[in-house]
Design brief:
The protein has nine helices and no strands. By secondary structure, the chain is mostly helical. Helix 5 packs antiparallel against helix 7 and helix 5 runs antiparallel to helix 8. It is globular, with a radius of gyration of 19 Å.
Amino acid sequence: MNMTLPNQLTALRMALTPIFVWLILSERSTLRLLGIIVFTIASLTDLYDGYHARKYGEVTRWGAFMDPLADKILITSAFMVFVSRGVIDLWMVVIVLLRDVIVTALRLYAELKDKPIITSKSAKLKTLFQNALAYVLLLLMLLSEKTLFGDSLADNANAILYSPVVHYAMLALTLFTVYTGGSYIIENWQTIRYAYLGARDSASARG
């Protein structure tokens, strides 16, 4: 594995994820605020590592696989935090997680068979929407801290946080995530098929 700067940033994002979860679930307002800052830093590494890798020709197969995986781990962790706070429903996160597990398994299988799968545009858009929703919900969680922002602002933030708007926003994101999973498989079907046929032929030859 070539630990270029983009790959180091990907590894850093994965390392920051459990720290974010621990901080955001803390009982202390200041630590929860720090958790949001950690999440922001982790997200920014995602914006920069891809740009740096493309600009300076440091794209690696490890980075191409691990970068989106690190994103999925970070976002799923944030969504599970929202579930623990009763902000969104668990079944939606489970669907999103299942989609990511299936796509990641296909990508890993294709990588092992030397048939890399290209990330679709819709999948990238899905990641953007997921990050945007996570940021909004984290901001509302921050504003709902009465010790930091007072009763009035905190009550308004809580009203939005637990409103049907958030529920339907997450529902729309869940449906779009399922769509991107389907389009991901369709757009890369030939690659997946060739990888499978190659593995089957190799097994037959050994048999």
